[in-house]
Amino acid sequence: MKRWVFLIAVASLFSCSHPALPPDTVAIGMETDPAALDPRYAADAASVNVCKLIYAGLFRRDAKMEMRPWLAESVAQKNPLTYRIRIRPGIRFHDGRPLTSADVRYTIESILSGKQGASPVKSSLGEVVSVETPDPLTVEVRLKKPFAPFIRNLTFGIVPEGSGDLSAHPVGAGPFRFASRERGKELALARHEGYFLKKPSLAGVLFKVVPDETVRLLELKKGNIHIVTSPITPAVLPWLEQQEGITVMRKPGTNVAYLGFNMKDKYLSDARVRRAIAHAIDREAITRHLLKGLAEKTETVIAPVNPFHEPNLAPHEYDPALAMRLLDEAGLTAREGKPRMTLEYKTSKNQLRRKIAEVIAEYLGKVGIAVRIKSFEWGAFYGDIKTGNFQMFSLTWVGVDDPDVMHFMFHSKSLPPDGANRGGYANPALDALLAKGQTEADVAKRKRIYGEAQRIAAEDLPYVTLWTQVNVAAVDRRVKGFEVYPDESFDALETASVQNGER
Amino acid sequence: MRRYLLKRALGLVFPVFGVVTLVFLMIHLIPGDPVETMMGESARAADKQEMRHALGLDRPLPEQYVAYIAGLARGDMGISLRTHEPVFLEIVSRWPATISLALAALLIAAVVAIPMGVLAAARRGSALDKGSLVISLVGVAVPNIWLGPMLIIAFSLWLGWFPVSGRGEPLSIVLPAVTLGAGMAALLARLTRSSVLEAAGEEYMKAARARGLSERQVWMRHALANALLPVATVMGLQLGALLSGAVITETIFAWPGVGRLLIDAIESRDYPLVQGCVLNIALCYVAVNFAVDALYAVLDPRIRVER
């Protein structure tokens, strides 16, 4: 008996105490620990999403991806190079300091200077010449040359003037303030009582790091976690939907999966071959059966949820006969028992990505294109893609917002390392449109420009766009008012509430 | 004895140095760019280059290596590229989780395996022996990645005895420790059985019986004491492995230990943190091996007089 008492005492020493979830607190299961809790340096999705709760930005996107002022009260473009932003009065940081134009200036300048470390936000600001603060609530930013995405990119959180790297002690003006953190285990946020908009109903948010997906879902079933978001393996959805007390929410997102091609390749440089590939793959069947509805077929990298999406594009329907005709026209005729050509398809080691590659290879095989799948560890795979060492690959663009990203993907000058035109695609008509879209300030005109750019890309197919990801969240029914956002953010927690007690 | 231990300690410096060098070269040679991970692909090439320069990643590899070794000599393991925290603190913060899990798993393995092995040896060929063989085979064959979730479903979801995951209340250590200890217990049980059987055939057993000792005394004092030497060696090696982090078990049970830290570091190409974690692993192995050697010298005086 004494031995057992001793053992329990030792076990108690080893484990630290874990208080039960406080009232009005929502627990969210996360796959990884956020790396940086400073909005200027947050690069991974976990960090970016947590930062959006702690730090308020000048603008933010709503559930329909429309831009809404947040800290900003108004914005005016004085001329193509100068933006004047007015900040709401009376806003305070979590530590009580008032938020002024000096803080905005400091945040932008520290991002641009990179003195405390390079910021992933920097390239989204274009070339800023100066940031002036005529009064405590007005900021004037001057650019070197017109850069239309500038305003849409002012969504990063504002930090107090003079702040170093805030990851250890985050201080922002967002709806929740940093409470505590145990690395690799959990991160606790508490309601910001002085929040400048309607105070959140939730007293706090607890992010629990549970790397294994199965265990995350078991924690949800047990009621220890309230919300689990993407990635959720499509195969577990039917089980999840049968669980009592759990609601599965879906919403099309901004991430778009595609097949990329090397334009220097003797087969793939021919647009007819690329079109044949597009018609040879039954994308609807893949999204329905393999991805269990967690994806929707699309023809462009600008997702349907994005206000710049062009809805009137001719779809590439599944038509193997047409695909074979196109290949014949391209001179790739079928010979008895031999494929028309063999393509190497690179992908990562991810199990689902491999499965998708196998299914695509099977479809292409039916029209006479033999496919050799090569899957690599992520770093090696991505390294090959960036250096153009591929014939064909599949990847997903994550968090596509401003359509200027098409310049980064397809402009003939956007070759790596400065851009992501990895296949070396060049189309002067598209180049001209993408350059124009970068400087056009009028939103309606921009929409027309990018509509035309998407039409060219959908016809010439530098990518075969496969599908847009449907974001999913499994939510405990005790949580009210939660919503899945297209960019996978947790912004809905600002207005959500939770019913205390057992489910 | 002191000379023996000093000699052993000196002999351990080179493996550690070798591991540090090898890992430094390997992590820099595998594809993947930490700056890309930190800044995202859309960052301008000039900004990425500036960052590489600030981190010293654009310096020639030998220069980086010398700087790293010089830092280690000063006790500085560098700063994590991902979290900007000192690597040493990042690792140390994970020690309590890793050490507690390793010791608990080892304790469970020893408590189950040694009596099972001794009983199986003492009742050789009996149903008990055969049963223990089956249990051991199952223990070795079942992978942690399956056992962990099964234990969670049975003991957390159905019975509600233990937490599903996380390191919190005292009972939270039970399921991960059982998952981690199961395979080891199976291995130790088989080893204990064969070692005890080997010892049972020795002359000193007959001598002990001839001296009129009870059967229990003969087995416990003579057979087991001699049979435990190889068992202690294996346990030591296992402890070394456990202290370096049990990646799968830590991932399943959301246990914030060193193993998971290493995996996160590799995925984000956090060079200093990967190097720090591997150095930590090497030191764990070396320290445990040294302790086992020292224990050997205590258990078997013949070892320390060997040249």
How would you characterize this protein structure?
The complex is a heterodimer of chains A (503) and B (307). Chain A is an alpha+beta fold and 503 residues long. Chain A has 13 helices and 19 strands. In chain A, strand 4 (72-79) and strand 5 (82-87) form a beta hairpin. The longest helix of chain A is centred in the C-terminal third of the chain and has 18 residues, at 443-460. Mean pLDDT of chain A is 91; it is low at 1-19. Chain B has 307 residues and is mostly helical. Chain B folds into two domains: 2-73, no CATH class; 88-304, Orthogonal Bundle (MetI-like fold). In chain B, 78% of the residues lie in helices and 0% in strands. Chain B has helices at residues 2-29, 34-39, 45-55, 61-73, 87-122, 127-141, 144-158, 174-200, 203-210, 215-243, 247-252, 258-267, 271-299, 301-305. In chain B, helix 5 runs parallel beside helix 13 (271-299), helix 7 packs across helix 8 (174-200) and helix 9 runs antiparallel to helix 10.
